[in-house]
Amino acid sequence: MESGPRPRWGRRIGWLLLIWALSVAGLGLLAWLLRLLMRAAGMTA
């Protein structure tokens, strides 16, 4: 008993890839901000 048409696999994979890409970009941004803060505090490598 289905309540309506199921979304296509293409849409599901598209959403999965979008969420993955946004999470990777968010982690990259966080790493960049931490690097800026560490550099501002004088912790250079």
TrEMBL record:
Transmembrane regions: 12-34
InterPro entries, sorted: DUF2474
Alphabetic keyword roster: Membrane, Transmembrane, Transmembrane helix
Q: Record keywords: Membrane included?
A: yes
Protein name (Swiss-Prot/TrEMBL)? DUF2474 family protein
Q: Which organism is it from?
A: Pseudoxanthomonas gei
